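dumping this here so i dont lose it
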């Protein structure tokens, strides 16, 4: 079964950090076959501070977890967390 990261985030407040995250993310996404899907923010209900929604699709749940635990992602994640507030969950399934 596929694995997904579901990310709910606030607006980006540090553009430099977001750009660095994007630069570091590209080779990580390629390594794990991650596919980014921007979700319609209008679908957010009871979102609190969140104004952005993203899904990152992986071939498997194992890959989704391995990507998150990769030391290269740990480095990249520091920039993502500087860029905006967010929540990330990892799920298993077929979201179509």
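and the seq i came up w/
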């Amino acid at each position: 079964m596929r694995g997904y990261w579901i990310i709910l985030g606030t607006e980006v407040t540090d553009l430099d950090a977001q750009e660095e995250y994007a630069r570091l993310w590209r080779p990580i996404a390629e390594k794990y076959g991650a596919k980014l899907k921007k979700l319609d923010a209008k679908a957010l209900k009871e979102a609190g501070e969140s104004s952005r929604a993203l899904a990152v699709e992986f071939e498997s749940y194992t890959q989704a977890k391995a990507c998150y635990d990769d030391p290269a992602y740990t480095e990249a994640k520091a920039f993502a967390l500087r860029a905006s507030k967010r929540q990330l969950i990892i799920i298993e399934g077929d979201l179509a």
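The helical segments are 15-32, 61-69, 71-83.
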